[in-house]
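Data availability excerpt. The first of two example chains:
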Amino acid sequence: MEKKNLFISQATKILGGGSVISDRNFEAFSKIFSAGDTIRYKIGKPQKTIFLSLIDRCFKHYVNGINKNIISEISKIAEDCELIWIDNSTYGSIAKKLKKNNYKGKIIVFFHNIEYIFQKRPFVKRLLYPIFNLPIKNAEKNAAKYADLIFVLTERDRNEVQNWKNKTPIVLLPSSLKDTYRNYPEKKSNCLKKEVLFVGSNFYANVNGIMWFINNVLPYVDIHLTIVGSRMNELPITSNEKIEIHGFVEDLYTFYAKADCVIAPIFEGSGMKTKTTEALMWGKFIIGTKEAFCGFDITDDIGVCCENSEDFINAIRTMENRTSTFNLASRKLFLEKYSNNKSVEIIQEAIKNYLYKNK
């Protein structure tokens, strides 16, 4: 029987950067090996008793939906697969079990983030570190130890994984998107206020960032701010003469078309920000933070990196001199480094160099 390939990912469809990147990875994987030769296995959240769940979590590092039955099922499927892509670093228990069972194929693990750092915990859960974050950290260490090849989004994440002292090769695979750009007309020059856009779902880092901006920057600049994202209409503010708020929108074209620039006041997180990639795709100048720009080659003609409210205020006031809503340098950078086509090239090259170099 001809060997297949297996792609393992999270089943939960969360509107946000993680699911976008996961779908990007699957499409790239299927392009390289053909969709007909690829099995996609999605892991959900099993219903278990709290007691059994805690035992598995703390002693077996079964986190994020993993349980004994899932590992058994995947092990059976893996018998007919020569290459497995695990699209979640917290699924390290799968890689460990496969290798302990003498799996002969190759295992790739993709780190969306360093999850034990990325996942914010309330005070009570931080007190219970051995139950909540430590199993995640151990699962990720197993992923790094038992993989044959690791992909990470940023140099920062690569440095963290390298600190775990494994010999597994680590390759940078930056955030990227399918190119859905469409030309948009320039705004009329008689617009009195600059239009500033924030795109992001109702996730703690996005909420904290935009609320900080509204409280510390918006009162001191003469702009109109538009906020768009899944459940962002649930923010503890309402639309007014300076702020327009939208929840989930199927097509963001209209919002990007009228925006003079995109803001990214993000101060927390890990990995790369998909919305930064999206702003580049649409040819937008970006005013953001070090966190928002992590992993991106942002130069002065593409964006301004801000550390505090004064930096944001000055950057926005300087932006008033910009005459075009389209920023060619941003669009060029996207095409050169952050399109899906570039991701396919990186994956192909890494598999050739590290997994099948003698073939």
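And the second chain:
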Amino acid sequence: MKKRITQDDYIKANRKASREAEIEMYGHPICHKRVHQSKKVYNRRKIKAADKKLPYFFLQDSVTISRKLKRCLSIYLSNYLYNPS
């Protein structure tokens, strides 16, 4: 007796192949059922994330980093000048 391929088997095989191709292409499965969120909706998480990218935070961080680098360099150079080995 021959086994026939039903429509359900065909759909199942197509879905599986499509999912595997998607994972191979993008590295992870993509959700196609996600609801589109309007840009006009208030989203506190996005606003807070945008606030962290303001220039004065960057300048403040760069100043502290530059101070630390200067201190480390001065310590390293002083040690190197006193103990050249």
